Amino acid sequence: MNVIPAWREGVTGRGVVVTILDDGLETDHPDLIANYDPMASYDVNSHDSDPQPRYDMIDSNRHGKRCAGVVAATANNSLCAVGVAYGASVGGVRMMDGDVTDAVEARSLSLNPQHVDIYNASWGPDDDGKTVDGPGELATRAFIEGVTKGRNGKGSIFVWASGNGGREHDNCNCDGYTNSIWTLSISSATERGEVPWYSEICSSTLAATYSSGAINEKQVNSLNFRSFLLYKS
Ligand SMILES: [Ca+2]
Ligand SMILES: [Ca+2]
Ligand SMILES: [Ca+2]
To answer: Is 85:4 a contact under the CB 8 Å cutoff?
Structure first.
């Protein structure tokens, strides 16, 4: 990702607060605990302040932790990975592990907007190649409030995944979250710089970054730490 020259200039994400709107976040993960920010975290699904994921046998709620690690896993601790912005503070909003209603989305998108700088989301309409949908009334209001009043008036930053419906020929232009003027829509590239099988190609995409490729290419790889311990035992 050509990120090392940025680190050398001292740009590590220090002073920046990111929250991951997803299926939860392992707050005590050994590679996240140092950068974990409770003020950037909430559990919308269970109405409490702890976004710890719900564990099951197939570790289905690992995506939020995975995103948080890519952003802000701790550097130089001889553990796991290094986040692109390893100096950033990171929190998680648990909101995918239940019905994702307009109210759930709005609550997540408006968490502590004077503290959180960047909201990272990878959800939206079904990636089935036939659903055209976008944010409802409450989520739309949350976007507008965020970009006009968040970050003390500088505007909240909403980063959006462009979608995983490539196999179904889904098109991210038909996704009202990625094509919104209030979000930055980010696509992915394989380690060889090619379009991955799941990727959706559309004009609302602002940038692309490396992510998992095909089975014989590099993947973003992770388990929840507690699940990892379970598998090892
Ligand atoms: Ca909880
Ligand atoms: Ca690490
Ligand atoms: Ca899609």
So the answer is: no
Give residue 31 CA to ligand 1 midpoint distance, Å. 20
Q: Beta strands 205-210 and 183-189: pairing type?
A: parallel
Q: How far is the CA of 23 from the centre of ligand 2 (A)?
A: 22
Q: How far is the CA of 181 from the centre of ligand 3 (A)?
A: 17
Q: Which has the closest alpha carbon to 7: 84, 122, 120, 60? A: 84
Q: Is residue 121 part of a domain?
A: yes
Structural domain count, the chain:
1
64 CB-side CA count, 13 A: 31
The answer to whether residue 6 is domain-embedded is: no
Rounded to an integer, the average pLDDT of 126-148 is 97
* Owning domain of residue 146: 13-232
CA distances from 175 to 128, 172, 183, 201, 207 (A): 11, 5, 12, 12, 16
- Residue 146: inside a domain, yes or no? yes
Residue 233: pLDDT above 70? no
d(CA 178, ligand 3 centre) in Å? 8
- What CATH code is carried by the domain that includes residue 108? 3.40.50.200
